[in-house]
Amino acid sequence: MEQVAAPRKIIHVDMDMFYAAVELRDRPGLRGKPLVVGGRPDSRSVATTASYEARKFGIHSGMSCAQARRLCPQCLFIPPDFKKYRHVSEQIHAIFREYTDLVESVSLDEAYLDVTRNKKNEPSATRLAREIKARIFAATGLTASAGVAANMFVAKIASDARKPDGLCVVRPEQVMAFIRPLPVLKIPGIGRVTDAQLAKLGIRTVADLEKCSLDFLQEQFGKSGRYFFDIARGIDERPVIPWHERQSYGAEETFASDIAKQGPLLDFLRDCAGRVFMELQEEGKLARTVTLKIKYADFQLVTRRQTFADFLFSSEDVFRAACALLERTEAGRRPVRLAGIALSNFLPARQRVELAAAPLFKKSDA
Ligand code: TTP
Ligand code: MG
User: Fold this and answer.
1) Measured on CA atoms in the order 168, 174, 179, 181, is the torsion positive or negative?
2) How far apart are the C-alpha atoms of 335 and 28, rounded to whole Å?
3) Is the shortest distance between the CB of 23 and ligand 1 below 6 Å?
4) When comparing pLDDT for 3 and 159, which is higher?
5) Residue ID of nearest Cα to ligand 1 atom 21
6) Where do the H-state alpha helices sit in 15-167?
7) Which residue among 12, 13, 16, 17 is best mutated to probe the pocket of ligand 1, counting the most ligand atoms within 8 A of its Cβ?
8) pLDDT digits (tens, 9 = 90+) for 9-61
């Protein structure tokens, strides 16, 4: 007799307007007001989150704060407090791990849980999702939305379907009716660039995508064609892989011979800044902290670090920061055997992540 694997039970949990919700929790007087978490509107900074009231004015994550103010002059701007968000993130992840070790963390406020087998021996994923939401609220005072489905992509879309404080369960027999009307932009991994490419081909919804042959999609989109083809049929076999976001990105080098002068060191740092910035950019992130590491010829190691109010938007920004940090070392006066740059303190600028850079493809290709 043919063995049919039982469907998996995946829960996707995503906090509601995360950074803004944390700030509103801590400033109850501001509830109901349009609010953006981001830098000052007269700086080059971007909105990390807009409260639901602010979203009514068309403000969204990734928009410049200057534009947000134009859309809504009475909008309040609150600087991000990453330490607070990280703390909440640790709280919710601790809750997740009480249910399963199969937790794939996507960002501070978002994770997939495979609860097919779970530590509570609870067969109903719906009941688990309800309980997890309640536990999160009790521990943090914040609401989360959850999606329950047999695979990651449907669970992800489901968690978004009833925001805020939502719970949406999509059973296997409901999947096609649920996904067919969706615009392709809703598919995880499809960003604005791919969406525009698909639109040119007349493909706007999942139903449109479903009509395309595998050959056609592979011809148009290479490796991603297969992913699109499967997604359009509600198929997503990616396993939930326990994974945690990297905390820093860096590059360093021990030189073939010690460097005594600043000039060649600056050349190296320029190159290094470019490499590290590019790596970060490929992950769709921006950083606020630059760390310079210098090891002198006598093996003494020093680090110099600076955290900026604003994100570093280019490799030139990173290079300039590294140069300023270099001034705070004895490089140029003492020979240096190793130098390196690390970036940390991230903004997960996921909106700018396009298909090629989306981690889910990197993982399944590996
Ligand atoms: P999201 O879960 O995408 O958004 P959200 O939690 O603010 O709102 P929603 O209720 O729609 O889920 O992102 C989580 C946090 O990540 C968000 O609060 C701020 C941060 N973030 C950025 O810093 N930049 C971005 O471009 C996005 C999309 C999010
Ligand atoms: Mg969220």
Assistant:
1) negative
2) 55
3) no
4) 159
5) 48
6) 18-26, 52-55, 65-71, 82-97, 125-140, 152-161
7) 17
8) 999 999 999 999 999 999 999 999 999 998 888 777 788 899 999 999 999 98
d(CA 133, CA 174): 23
Residue 171 lies in a domain: no
Name the token pair of 41.
Answer: 């509107």
How far apart are alpha carbons 209 and 225 in whole angstroms?
10
Count of domains for the chain: 3
CATH number at residue 225: 1.10.150.20
Domain of 271: which CATH number?
3.30.1490.100
Residue 110 appears among annotated catalytic residues: yes
Q: Among 117, 355, 113, which residue's Cα sits nearest to residue 231? A: 355
Collect all residues with Cβ–Cβ distance below 8 Å to 68 and sequence separation of at least 6. Answer: 36, 38, 41, 47, 50, 54, 59, 75, 77
Q: What is the pLDDT of residues 106-146, one digit of tens each?
A: 888 999 999 999 999 999 999 999 999 999 999 999 999 99
Percent of the chain topping pLDDT 90: 69
pTM of the entire predicted model: 0.72
